[in-house]
Amino acid sequence: MDRTSQRAVRVAKALADPTRYEILRRVAAAGEICCRDVVSLFPVSQATVSHHLKILVDAGLLSGRRAGQFTYFSLKPGALEAHASLLSRAFGPSRKRPREGRKHPTPRSRSTAVTTSGKERIQ
Fold first, then answer.
1. Cβ contacts of residue 32 below 8 Å, gap of 6+?
2. Paired residues of 114 in beta bridges
3. Residue 91 CA from chain centroid, whole number
4. 40, 90 contact by CB (below 8 A)
């Protein structure tokens, strides 16, 4: 798998978790939010929120800014657009055009043969 595909998979995995998805939505809506405030929004521990934020940062969706003892998170500019573009390129129409007149191979028909023991065998 190439690096571009690996990046797309990492982002998809980060967004697959419902809590991380909602954290990303809340951060995007707020513009910037402190980790402490994210913890107050979810019924999970501070350590769990920190883990989710780390995964979102590692996937390239969020960036963190330290201010004293707190970290403020914001959506990375262009991160969602870049992911959408990756998906579009990966699953969009192929750039190669099929050859004219080329047909798909047809499956072989099944036939039976009689073995030396007298039983039929499907080939």
1. 65, 72, 73, 74
2. 120
3. 13
4. no
**Of the candidates 29, 49, 27, the residue with the CA atom closest to the CA atom of residue 39:** 49
What is the tens place of the pLDDT at every residue in 14-28? 999 999 999 999 999
In sequence order, the 6+-apart residues with CB closer than 8 A to the CB of 78 are none
pTM of the predicted model, to two decimals? 0.72
Average of per-residue pLDDT across 43-72: 96
Bridge partners (DSSP) of residue 6 are none
Instruction: Please identify which residue in the block is written with the tokens 């039929």.
Output: 120
> Which letter does DSSP use for residue 106 in this model?
P
Over the chain, what is the mean pLDDT? 85
Q: Which domains does the chain have, with CATH numbers?
A: 3-86 (1.10.10.10)
Of 82 and 120, the structure prediction assigns the larger pLDDT to 82
